[in-house]
Structure formats: structure tokens, C-alpha cells
Amino acid sequence: MRHQVKRVGFTLVELLVVIAIIGVLIALLLPAVQQAREAARRTSCRNKMKQLGLALHNYHDTFNVFPSGNMSRSGSTTDCTPDGDQCQDGMASWTVLILPFIEQGNLYEQFDFRQPLYWGFNDDFTGTNPSCGTNDNFVPQTTSVDAFHCPSDPLASGGSLTNNYMGVMGGDTYPGNNNGTAYNCRMNNTRLNYNNGMLYLNSKTGFHSATDGTSNVYLIGESKYLFQPSFCCETATWASSARINNDDSLLLNIVACTFQPNTGDSPLNNNVHMWDEMPGTVGSWHPGGCHMAMGDASVHFISENIDITTHRNLSKRSDGYPIGGLGQL
Fold it and tell me: What positions does the domain DUF1559 occupy (predicted)?
């Protein structure tokens, strides 16, 4: 007599239940995975800022001064807009001057420091803007340098030319316009200009300048500002410097501290090449705050809830208010 073998298997309902359970588990695990990835990116970002801080120290050891935040050559002008506005040439910024100290000596040698380091680029970096002429620094200035990219920045991969780490020029209360209205960097085609920090326009500061103590002054800060000058030569890069004329100014690769981190002016638009985000303060793609490298090259994560007066004081090299316990900010 044959015995029938009872086959065991899943019913359709059981299969659907198993799939639902797997989906729930994935949904629970995904945030943890994303947090782990962000923690790794944040650590990498911190290490990059540390290396930039040490590079600035090595520059100081060599020349007994920090590099200028960016430079303009007085008396040298260029027709930089279609209507012929005269602008002072923007020369090398600190990001270019420290290249030999971040293992980019070959790239440094490609720059012609007799030529300006700002205008001449279309917003997609495909070539020079014909209304601005050509520039011998096009090739080195459009060479991607990973040392200036925060891993959390969505533009960091794929050879981005932007810079997430900017010298701190100083800071203070947000100014108003001469007519009493609220100042707006986006509407004024400019960035705030301070010289009470460590790296500002034509600066020549050193360790001796930080009378508050090097551990109590910002040197470099993270930034989400992506270079939207609103002029004919529309886009700048990590190597760009300053553009100065009678009506407005654009100081690139340096930033002021007027608001708390991750606050301030909103983006001008959503064009990935023309994103004007928070031109009046530091900021990052990390939740909760941003990294700041101090004058002693230590790196601290500064909360976006930091007291605004404390934040502004830390951006100043000699305000007379030394502040300790940065790990608690």
C-alpha cells in the first residue's frame, strides 16, 4: 500500500507575510545604515579640515605669515561685465597658495600668478565666457581637488570644482543697507567683507595676530556657498579669488560669521552650478552644525544652536574675549 507523502510549502498568505516582515526590517535598518554612512562622511570631513589646518601651519612655518584669504591687485582692472564695469583683478586665494602643502605641488606650478583667478567660466565649466575673454589659468583652475570636498556634499563626487572649506574673514552683526532696509547678499550681488578674522582680503596675519589665543579663533569653516556671483562670468571654482568694483564685491573662498551655522540667506535657486546658499555664514551638509578648524589646527563640530555672540567672537582674532570648552559648544 502506497503512502502519500505530504508536501510542505508556503501558502500565498504566508509568503506575503514573510515579505512584509522583511520590508519592515529593512525600513528599520535603513536609517541606521544611513546614520553610519553619515558618521563616516563626517569623520572624513573632519580629517580633511585637519589636514588643511596643518597645511596653513606649514605655510606659516615657511613664510612666517598665513596666506591671504584672497587678493586683489590694486590699480589693475578688467572690463568684467558687458557694460564695461572695471574690476580689480582677483589674484591667488589661500586655497591655491597652500597647494604645495597638501601634496599638490605639480598643480601649483601650473598657475600663472600674473593672471587673475576668477572670471572666465560658463556656469557649467565647459569653457570661457566670450564676454570675459580667456585666461591662462583655465586648466589648473578647473582641475578638481578632492582635499576641498566635503564627502556629504552631493556635488562632492564626479570631479566637482567647488570648495566646502573656506577661510574665516571674521564676523559681526549682519549689516543693513544705507537706506535702512535689511541687507541681502543675494540682492546686493556681494558677500560680506570683514577683516577682523584670520583670512580676509589681502590679509597678512600670523600667530601673533591671534591675541585671543589660537585655540580661540576660527581659521577655516565649512560652507555650503556655491559661488553665484550673478555677473557675466557666472561661475567660480575652489581656486577663485576676489572681484572688487565700485558697486559690489565678491570674495570667494572666505566666509564671514554673521549668523549661527546652517542659517541665514536661503538659496538663490536650485541650479546645481549657481546655488547661492548662506553667503553670510558658515554651514555644512551635516545635520546639527558644522566643523570649524581653529587657529591651532584643532577641529571642532560647532552646534547650529551656539550662542550667536560667542560664534561671532570666535571669528575675531583679537576681540578680547577668550572662550574655552569648545567641545561643549
Answer: 34-308
